[in-house]
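hey team, just a heads up i'm posting the complex here instead of the shared drive bc the drive is being weird again. everything in one block, sequence lines first with there labels, then the predicted structure for the whole assembly after. its two chains so it's a bit long, scroll down
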Amino acid sequence: MSKIRKSLSSMSASLVAILAGLIAGFVILLFSNPSSALKGLTTILIGGWNNGMKGVGQVLYYATPIIMTGLAVGFAFKTGMFNIGATGQLMVGGFVSIYVGVTWTFLPGGLHWVVALIMGAAAGMLWGMIVGVFKALLNVHEVITSIMLNYIALYGINYMVKNSHLFDSLKNQTVNVAASAVIPKAGLDRIFYIAKGRLNDPSAVNAGILIAIGLAVLMYIILNKTTFGFELKACGYNRHASRYAGISENRAIITSMAIAGALAGTAGTLMYLAPASGMHIHVEEVLAAQGFTGIAVALLGMSNPLGIIFSGLFIAHITVGGFYLQSLKYMKEIIEVIIGLIIYFSAFSLLVRDLIAKIGKRKTKKDKQSSKEVTA
Amino acid sequence: MSDYIIQMINITKVFPGIKANDNITLQLKRGEIHALLGENGAGKSTLMSILFGLYQAEEGQILKDGVPVLVKDPNDANELGIGMVHQHFKLVHNFTVLENIVLGVETTRHGTLHMDEARQKVMTLSEQYGLLIKPDALIEDITVGMQQRVEILKMLYRDNEILIFDEPTAVLTPQEIDELMRIMRSLAAEGKSILFITHKLAEIMAVADRCTVLRKGKYIGTVDVKSSSPQELAEMMVGHKVDFKIDKQPAQPGEPALHVRRLSVEGSHGDKKAVNNVSFDVYKGEIVCIAGIDGNGQSELVYAITGLMPSTGEIKLNQAPIDHQSIQKRIKAGLAHIPEDRHKHGLVLDYDLQQNLSLKRYKTIEMQRHGFIRFDKVRSYAEGLIERFDIRSGQGADTSARSMSGGNQQKAIIAREIDIDPEVLIAVQPTRGLDVGAMLYIHEQLVKVRDEGKAILLISLELDEVFQLADRILVIYEGEIVAELDPKQTTPQELGLYMSGSKRQEEYA
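-- predicted structure starts here --
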């Protein structure tokens, strides 16, 4: 009973943040083009549904990598680490999976994409582990190492792509991976499509979303049901007490960063193991945005793996909505502003929740004041 | 002119959810030493903070010489002649004694410092009240006792006539306490009025004229100390008859359980060792108490034995060396630790009570299967401990540790540590900040563990506790053991000499 109430109260904080963000977003819509502001807001709220089942599929497609990076940030956060390096881990994982996807064509069809995915996850894991090792053994703050590693990943990959057979110089991006390395559709294209004349126009969604949700459930189980998760969370809450109780803090830091890195690396593989029409690594000086969106997803999902599924879906939902917003002559960047506002408010909503909890406590305490112990 | 220099009439102060002061009246006569007695959390500090202007009361008024006054901040208090020696001194460590005394009211000429007049005044005051100081020494180089005299001189230098002492004896040796008592008497004789906050009855009997007792934020009464007794005061403070003595038979030491040889720990500044070449044994079935003034290496010694800090030397538990073992292995070998800071080390405050109770046991066979926690077992184990150790909390095993009272948090830690069935139990200030009831309970538990044949190493700063529990006393001074004493054949005064470093037994020289 108390557990349900607890999760409801934490959810309410996110919901309040979303509401406040949307209201503020509506005000921005009103200022930039008052006549279609209301229509704009409904477009955002309808999100993927603007374009039937295909739109819904697009939401799932966009949600996949940000659920993964959200998990990468949220999982590390449970161990008391701020993983700002999800973007670097994502790129490293993505690059390795492309490498495997392009070159290891000797692998049989059903196995090729699986191996590419695992190798990508392993690469992300190593990249995340570096951060953990520096923190655990040399006490270098994780934010510093991960920011540096983000740039090392970015420029290192640019260099390696440009100087290898992975480079498509015409498009300034990586070449297509082998068809056998593309993440399968798992029948999802037959659910999420719109009919265009006699042809079906399917969305880009693939089995990645199922993998993401599966991994989120797995992370939930690890964190909440196992002794390993118990140790990790104990370190996150109070590392002194954990050490005192015989938990190896260093091991917890390294393993949690390794797992976070693997999750972000998987995000990269799910993005780039795509058909020709899908995503490729572009040689440009921009860090992958999905890594940073993951911070927002984790924050909105309260770092709870199951919450992250929903917050990832929600952010993908309004992002797709923002795409359709352009038909109303709005800039699509407005949706980024609104997402930013929601995150901003969700930081506030933690304050609001504490405030609400305090007021609630005060009320119950007043009733029992006579029996209550007094402290100075 | 009114008989009373300060009167606090019907003071009420409410903090969120708590009435810290409920209609309290305190009247201070001119030239008296007035003790304010109460347990931790009785509202003493709040009341004094109101008088000193740190808090504003919701109801009630303050009268000086019978005239209502408003004390909005410590500056107002200073103008009214109210000064305070805080429990934790407010001194600038790399300033000299003289600089600290004049800080804020410097004597200047044409904008430049002129210390000569200040020095003269300070030295006069120092002689007048017998407050021995070294005016040009840095604060960090002088003893705690002298630091306290500097704090007193600060008040006198500002011509304060109402002096508040907040638990002034907590950091002093018995000799320094005697000295402080003498100073307080001479201050009173010179017409200063003193408010003396404490929970130690002996000090009140020794020095105070009258005593006001608070309990759980309420005013209990004001008594004339001469016509009262420690028993009466204790009863007023606690609310029921108290028997301070616990039932304790002489120890029957067996085999050595904890064996420490040449143990050293590096200091945090590198120059001086925090623990220097310490050797001792603790036998099964005895309580060995390490007595000393706070900050003489006790914490580091405990961290070294428990593995929280690296050390050199030899540590054996039941003949097996543990000095190179991980913390987890030491726990498994039978080392339990009731830590000094229950919030930092003792508990994960964001975990609930059952998680905290199983903090050292979640990996045992009965509590997990293939790495999955068996929540039903954790719960039933926790509920067993809650029942046995009478841990009170709002929602039983599901209560968040953060929301529990200090006494019950401590009980939870003690339950957890005793239940791992240790060979050696290290208890560091196990009753710090607890009321008399909880304190007695914890003392009884420790004696019970000892009688089961376990070895207990107790670290305490409270001499009452040392004499109450110890079968043997080791005195630590500047990281070294300087004496071994039998509590039945020594006195607090003798102990004090060792604690302050002015005496040292030959075998420890």
